[in-house]
Each structure stands twice: as structure tokens, then as C-alpha cells.
Amino acid sequence: MDDIPCSPPRPLARATRLAQAGTRSDAATGAISTPIHQTASFRHPALGRSSGFDYSRTSNPTRLVLEQALAELDGGCRAFAFASGLAAIDAVVRLFAPGERIVVTEDLYGGTYRLFQHVYRPLGIEAVYVDTSDAAAVRAACADPRVRGLLVESPTNPVMRVADLRALAAIARERGLLFAVDNTFLTAWCQRPIEQGADLVLYSATKFLAGHNDVVAGAVVAATPALAERLAFLQNAAGAILGPQDSWLVLRGLKTLALRLERHQANAGRVADWLSRHPRVRRVHYPGLEGHPGRDILLRDGSGFGGMVAFEVDDAARVPPILAGVRVFIFAESLGGVESLITHPLAQTHADLPREVCERVGINNRLLRLSVGIEDADDLIRDLEALL
Ligand SMILES: Cc1ncc(COP(=O)(O)O)c(C=O)c1O
């Protein structure tokens, strides 16, 4: 029996690793819940020596546990937690220099658009807006030698246009571009952009990663040590770090990501299906619906369709009574929490986007966006039924 070779231990499944994120991080006491290291500074053992932590802007043990869990979840080499999703995007754009251009999804989150137009453009870094669900259009835009990066949201907010990340990664590789994916909507539970060839994955961790509408946070996952080194420098130099309490909240949320996402998308699928058969609904945007453009890409490369649904009613006059009358959905401007929210993208999240882009992609005054939570799906459907 002795000479039977031992088989190597089976790698743990992602749901197991998520549930146990950080549980073995406190060697001193064995605490299961990662301690919140609410400290700005750390005592030096001696001159020229460090415990590994010196000052919490540079690194903090609670934040580090979260960052390690995020890196592992996305299959990256290192992750960085920021004070918000926009702070994470800001760190990534600081990798570029004045005179350089970045090809960006045209129907991206309005706050990211505002950042590009009103902060980076005056500093000489320009966004080139493209329909990134059209790989040929991306290829054409990347032919400009000033283009040095590609920043893609997929599926887009709120009309769920799906990009072929593999095809875009090939274009980025050919042209030597930095390829970043904002994966806020699907999270690594449903889509792992590094496996498709992305260099960086971005998150508003405020949303599904934290998942409880109780914290504002952001994250960047780097695929290579060189990018990680540069981002570590920028995170420390610019300082938009996530604090220890908020790091703990995101870490706690992360433990139930698998459960939550499965329920979010089961509910979203049912709500989308019901809406698609309602006579007063003109259009439903949900990547899991049969016939949704890009559904096949997510079936091929991803492992889910997420919890976001947008729908267009037949008459804009229905919108105010729906927003005022919802009793289970909450009229509020965020997404990804356990509670279902409803928003009017044209007036809210996408108010900063040019009207002609909104009209072209279908963000009009009849469009409503749902962040479908983990409640009972029948309650959610009944809530909409009463108002439609
Ligand atoms: C896709 C996407 N990226 C980035 C952000 C910005 O994140 P935060 O609000 O955490 O700064 C948002 C916010 O809604 C978003 O929806």
C-alpha cells in the first residue's frame, strides 16, 4: 500500500474559497472573521525593519485579505481595493500619458463618461467612444497609433450589449494595447475577463461584490506582476484607498457572492421572461433571453447572465406612476444589492451621456432599469404587474 502515489489535493471550488475568504488570515488568535485593523500606522520592530505593514495608505492587513480574495476570484496576480469604482477607474487611467487615447465603450456608465470628458480630456488623455459589441468597429478605432488602451464595459449599462472579450483581447494583443474590462455587472462569478485575455479587471465593488447597498468601494485586478507593481505604486501615491471597515464589509459580502448571484440571475431570468410577454412592454434587455444579441458569447465564455434587466414600456407616461408606485422594488440609483431597485437611466445614471448616443443605443424616456434582488420572484413580478 505504501508505494501507491498520493494524488495531489483537489483544488477547492470557487464557492468554497469564497465562503472561506480570509478565515485563516489571523494566525495570532485564529479569529474566523478577519479582524478590522483600524489603524493608520504600525510599530516598527527595529530601525530598517517592518512587520510588512508600515502605514495604512500603503497597505493594511484587512484590506490585504480582501485584495487577495479579489485577485484569486478573478484569477489575477494581485488586486487593489479603492474608495469607489470611479477611484479604481481613475487609477487605471493614470497608467496612460497625455497625448494617448483609449478606446472606450460608447454606452458606458455616465460617471465614467463624465470622468473621461471633464477630467482626463483637459489633461490630454482622450476617450474614443465605440460600440464595443462590434469587434470590427473596435479594430478600426484601434488603428489610430495614438490609441494605447481599450476599456470595455460588458454587458453595458443598461441595454446589455455584450462584447466578445476574446476577440477584443486579440486586437489589443496585436496592437500592444492595455485591455481593461469593467466587470461590475457580471462579476467573476459569471465572467472572468483575464481568462479571455484582459490585462485588468475593474469593479464598482459597491455593487454585486459587496452586495448589500451599504458600502461604496472599487477594485482593480491585475493580470501581470508588472501591472500590479505599477498599480501598487499608483494606489499608494494617489491614495484613494478603501478603509479597513469598508474592506471588511466588502469581504463579508464576497463570502455569499456565489449564492447571491445564482439567486439574482434566477430572479432576473423570471422577471425578464415575464416582461417579454407583457403587451405594454416594447423591449426587454437581458442577456439570458433567447435572441438577445451576444447571448451566445456569454454561453460560450461565461457562466451566467447576471441580475440586471432593462425594459422599455410602450408609453413614457407610464414611467412616473411606476417609479412612484413600486412597493417591492425601490426607486433608487444603484444596483447589485440584495434589495431590488428600479431606475430611470436617461434621467439618472446616464444623464451625463450625450443625448444622441442615448437615443441611438436605446436609452430613452421609456426605458427603466431593474437591479433584480434576491427576494421572492413572484413578489417582484406582482409589483410590476400591478403598475403595468
Ligand atoms: C459599470 C459601472 N462602473 C463603475 C461605476 C462607478 O462605481 P462607484 O459608484 O462605486 O464609484 C458604476 C456605478 O454605478 C457602474 O455602474
What do these coordinates show?
The protein has 388 residues and is α/β, with parallel strands linked by helices. The protein is globular and about 70 Å long. Helix 2 (61-74) packs parallel to helix 10 and helix 3 crosses helix 4. It has 2 domains: 14-254, 3-Layer(aba) Sandwich (Aspartate Aminotransferase, domain 2), CATH 3.40.640; 257-387, Aspartate Aminotransferase, domain 1 (Alpha-Beta Complex), CATH 3.90.1150. The protein has a 7-stranded mixed beta sheet with strand order 1-7-6-5-4-2-3, with helices on both faces. Strands 8-9-12-11-10 form a 5-stranded mixed beta sheet, with helices on one face. The chain is built from 15 helices and 12 strands. The N and C termini lie far apart (70 Å). It binds pyridoxal-5'-phosphate.
